[in-house]
Amino acid sequence: MYLYLGYLLVQLYALINKLLHTNMSLSVMLFSIIVVFIWSLIPFIGYWLAKWLNANGQVNKYTLFIFGVGVGLIENSLFYFDFLAKEQNIIGTFIVFFLFFIIAFISTNKTEFDTKKENC
Description:
The protein is mainly alpha-helical. The protein has helices at residues 2-20, 26-52, 61-80, 89-103, 112-119. It is built from five helices and no strands.
């Protein structure tokens, strides 16, 4: 959940920044916010899929939040630096899906070897 919240934070920042600089009705703004919530769930399915396939990565909630922010920034930078065009939004979503899938396998907890090393 923290991975999604970190990613959503970056997406909502971009959305709020865009909404503040345009003149739209309230219903269009609310619709845009709902679409961002739903659209940002699609890449997160990659994380759920990996966990369903028994990914054994163990990461604390703060690290997951940072990973989510990092992935959101990576996605935004792909469009900002013109690695992807606006028409290639699906490719950006697939890249984020793949990164979330990979994050499910990352483990940052101490291993048994590290624990034995500290006891010496």
